[in-house]
Amino acid sequence: MAKTRRSHRRLDDLVDRSGFIFTGVVRRTAAATMPRVTTSDRTAVVQVQEVLRVPRVLGDYTEKQVTVLLQKATSAKRGERTVFFTTSWMFGEGLAVTEVGTMKPEDGLRGRIADAEARLADRALQARIERASVIVTGKVLRTRPLEKKTRFVSEHDPKWWEASVEIESIEKGRHKEDTIPVLFPSSDDEMWIDSPKFREGQEGVWILQRNQQERGAPVFRVPGYTALDPLDYRARVERDRVIKLIPTKR
User: Could you count the other beta carbons within 10 Å of the beta carbon of residue 137?
Assistant: First the structure.
């Protein structure tokens, strides 16, 4: 059991730090596929055989050759089939990546990586749940723009709106009313673009902070409940998952 936990921890760490995971074979050492890469005993040309995880922007690199900056010159040997855990390094006329770690190929690794991704996703969501003041399941009755209380002008202005959420159940914390006002930024500025935007009739689970201090300049912050992280709003079908991740239901 302890060995299994250690194995899970190592794989979780590698997956957490990697964007591009693939099984490949080293074709050339001290070489590169891109002229911009300075070759050394730590650069290798690897032919991708199976893609296990890839950022959408990269597309399919199966059977293509990529440059890998190895952690050590001995990380992988020529002709050896290896699972590479990597992060992006250079992209353009080819692809160069930096090794985070390696493993020997094994049956069921794709499923184990998917399990690791699920564990990491649960940990990230649980961190938001533990930070929350109140968690409610409900439905947006209406939305309205919030009256601006500052004359300070900036492209990062969140342009606050308020969603009135009818509470079906309270999963964490306390709230006396049947509805709860949730403030959200309507702005698509880079600072707020990934914050959830709400609409009338929307149903789900809100993981709320009160008087948050984690995002936006102080001049733009407003008192009240917010769900600013992408994880802070979950579809209704995830309600049971959220409840299971609450350490102690209050």
Answer: 20
Per-residue b/e over 182-200, b at no fewer than 16 CB within 10 Å? bbbbbbeeebbeebbbbee
Q: For the beta carbon of residue 241, count every other beta carbon within 10 angstroms.
A: 13
- C-alpha to C-alpha distance for 234 and 125, rounded to whole angstroms: 10
What the block records as the tokens of 139 is 């439905």
Coil, strand, or helix at residue 24?
strand
Tens digit of each residue's pLDDT (9 = 90 or more) over 194-244:
999 999 999 999 999 999 888 777 777 889 999 999 999 999 999 999 999
CA end-to-end span of the chain: 32
Structure token pair of residue 106: 């094994």
> In this structure, are residues 209 and 132 in contact, taking their beta carbons and an 8 Å threshold?
yes
- Tell me the CB-side half-sphere exposure of residue 242, using CA atoms within 13 A: 25
List domains and CATH numbers for the chain: 2-117 (2.40.50.120), 132-245 (2.40.50.120)
Q: Tell me the pairing of strands 160-172 and 179-185.
A: antiparallel
| Cα–Cα distance, 81 to 23 (Å, whole number) | 7
Separation of CA 76 from chain center: 29
Global pTM reads 0.79
State which amino acid sits at residue 8. H
* CA gap 132, 4 in Å, rounded: 32
